[in-house]
Amino acid sequence: MARALWKGSISFGLVNIPIELHTAVRDHRPKFRMLHAKDKSPVKFQRVCQRDGTPVAWEDLVRGFEYAKGRYVVITKEDFQAAALEKTRTVDIIDFVNADEIDDRFFETPYYLTPAKGGERAYALLREAIRESGRVGIAKFILRDAQHLAAVEAIDQALVLTVMRFADELVETTGLDFPSDEGVRKAELDMAKALVNSLAAEWDPAKYTDQYRENLLRIIQSKVKGKKVELEPAEEPRQAEVIDLMERLRRSLGQSAGAGGRHGGMERDRAADKPKRGTTKKHAARKRARHAA
């Protein structure tokens, strides 16, 4: 069994359930090191003082905050300790909110919660209560000295804790320009919806692979064996152009039909617009995206 990143308990009301925290995502992309081109030896990086150009030892380093251009205030270990919260081992659920009310931009990194010994029955009870209610637990917990906001939800047989961003971490859209829907014509919208529905498919996360990673691994494996690999040439990116939207949509629909895409008319495809019972389209999309990770 994988080693837990963190051990503690879920707390809500007067209830405490012992749990363990496990990673739910992994990075498969190959890691690289910088080498000296002459002899392929790894290169070390030194910490150098910008003023006199001399290397600085670890014991001579302090942390500083730049409060003005080129001006710093030193923050000591005691300052960090004074700011730190008590290191509790508890995921404190503050509220249970409707899942479809949470903006997807708040979600960050998912983790699996597993029951510790003796907590299996209570864990299963909480999981099913969350599932049946359609709500998500909003909690705070401390991981690696920092306090995090988190969502706790039931996905399949697991309770999944997803680290969330705090409200002030989101960038407002007020400084950006987005077109309104005033100029959208019904005929164009119907055609666009028909194209969307012609590409409708069942969700299969294994279908979507990282081609860049696969190409890199093929190159690496070939170089290790002293061989040259032949990769399929990438398609040239299309140049931006002013297009007739209706004509382009018709052509796209025609190509989709020729490729065997499912496009049996807008009347039949309107059923695809409806979410499955008990699941909002928005919440289901977020769940699916996290499963793909």
Question: Can you walk me through this structure?
Answer:
This protein is α+β, with helices and mostly antiparallel strands. The chain folds into two domains: 6-28 and 84-168, Ku70, Chain: A, Domain 2 (Beta Barrel), CATH 2.40.290; 186-234 and 242-292, no CATH class. Helices cover 27% and strands 24% of the residues. It is built from seven helices and nine strands. The longest helix has 14 residues, at 120-133. The two termini are 21 Å apart.
In terms of quaternary structure, what is this?
single chain
Question: In terms of structural class, how would the helical and strand content be classed?
Answer: alpha+beta
Uncertain regions spanning at least 5 consecutive residues: 261-282
Query: How far apart, in Å, are the first and last alpha carbons?
Result: 21 Å
Mean pLDDT: 82
Would you spell out the secondary-structure blueprint of this structure?
Layout: E1 6-12, E2 15-23, E3 63-68, E4 71-75, H1 77-83, E5 90-98, E6 107-115, H2 120-133, E7 135-143, E8 146-155, E9 158-164, H3 186-198, H4 211-224, H5 245-258, H6 266-269, H7 281-292
Parallel strand pairs: 1-5
Antiparallel strand pairs: 1-2, 2-6, 3-4, 5-7, 6-9, 7-8, 8-9
Question: What's the short story on this structure?
Answer:
By secondary structure, the protein is α+β, with helices and mostly antiparallel strands. The chain is built from 7 helices and 9 strands, in the order E-E-E-E-H-E-E-H-E-E-E-H-H-H-H-H. It has 2 domains: 108 residues, Beta Barrel (Ku70, Chain: A, Domain 2); 100 residues, no CATH class.
